[in-house]
Design goal:
With 320 residues, this protein is an alpha/beta fold. It folds into two domains: 2-176, Rossmann fold, CATH 3.40.50; 181-319, no CATH class. The chain contains twelve helices and eleven strands. The protein has a seven-stranded mixed beta sheet, with helices on both faces. Strand 10, helix 4 (160-169) and strand 11 form a beta-alpha-beta unit. Helix 5 crosses helix 6. The chain is globular and about 55 Å long.
Length: 320
């Protein structure tokens, strides 16, 4: 299949590498001003969890192919920094590029905003289960054996089965939540609680160190569980029925001290999860997640004292 990746970010490049490795034609849409700086190859350092739940360390090269104007693709993978999706849609139209959009973004806006933004496009919401960072010409990343994907009934794309075929061919399963957009909100709320706790007890400007400190402390993890309960209630204030996500939220309902012990053990034994926690170092993205959840709680007059205190402290630490 023919796949277009928007830009040269971590998520898009990680999945682009995986798709290319399985024989699919992968191109990247790069702004004209940046094309001269794009390398022909990127070194890939990958912890691959598709074949082994402990992950397999791999070192490889990924050849970058730059897209041309007036092109058609089976799928266009969009994973860009917060607030830049509108610019992506404009660029695709200006360059006369078309294909089914796979939206791999943390989206905080509601369904009407999304429908208006992608009007005239076939698109599907999803969420990657991968992460990492790019430094120079090296991609340091990890990938799991699944992604989150909107159900066939709730999307307008005609090539849903073809997407499942692409994923299966690359040894990636699709997990289908009750509602993909609501699931993203819940995921962002959980992340906001994790980030603010890591920021309170560690140096948030050294994200790896802060994440490791959180994962190695059952006490901090217990406090994180309590914070998650507050942030998830903020999501409920958006008219989300949390009963539809009992499986996703089950771990956060057990006694917080016990949950902290269980999570510490999980982080110690699961190198894939530990790696994805330590590799994410984009502070602006981390703050964006927390701010959206905080503002929502404030606007909806939700009582979230623990999270609010931690968010305000995080903001001070980042801005000092």
């Amino acid at each position: 299949m023919k796949v277009l990746i928007i830009g040269l970010g971590v998520i898009g490049t990680t999945y682009g590498y995986v798709f290319q490795k399985e024989g699919h034609e992968v191109e990247h849409l790069i702004r004209d001003s940046k094309k001269a700086f794009v390398p022909e190859n990127i070194n890939v350092k990958l912890l691959d969890g598709r074949f082994n739940n402990k992950g397999e360390e791999k070192n490889d090269n990924y050849k970058i192919h730059i897209a041309n104007k007036n092109s058609s693709y089976d799928f266009i993978l969009v994973s860009v920094p917060a607030g830049k999706i509108e610019g992506v849609i404009r660029t695709l139209k200006e360059n006369d590029i078309n294909g089914t959009l796979i939206i791999f973004n943390g989206i905080w806006e509601d369904k009407s905003y999304i429908e208006n933004l992608f009007k005239g496009w076939e698109y599907i919401l999803g969420y990657p289960v991968a992460g990492g960072n790019i430094s120079g010409h090296e991609l340091n990343c990890c990938i799991f054996d699944h992604i989150m994907l909107e159900s066939k009934e709730k999307t307008n794309i005609k090539n849903y089965e073809k997407l499942l075929e692409l994923l299966s061919n690359c040894h990636i399963k699709a997990e289908i939540p009750f509602d993909m957009l609501e699931w993203i909100w819940i995921h962002m709320a959980i992340n906001a609680a994790v980030i603010t706790n890591a920021g309170e007890y560690g140096d948030i400007k050294n994200t790896t160190e802060a994440a490791e400190k959180l994962m190695d402390s059952s006490k901090i993890l217990s406090e994180t569980i309590v914070t998650i309960r507050e942030t998830v209630k903020i999501i409920a204030s958006r008219n989300v029925n949390l009963k539809n996500y009992n499986n996703e939220l089950f771990a956060y309902k057990m006694p917080s001290k016990l949950a902290g012990i269980v999570m510490k053990r999980m982080f110690k034994n699961n190198q894939l999860t530990r790696r994805i926690m330590t590799l994410h170092n984009n502070i602006n993205d981390l703050l964006y997640v927390c701010k959206n959840v905080y503002d929502c709680g404030k606007n909806n007059q939700m009582d979230a004292p623990l999270f609010s205190r931690k968010y305000n402290l995080l903001e001070k630490k980042i801005n000092c």
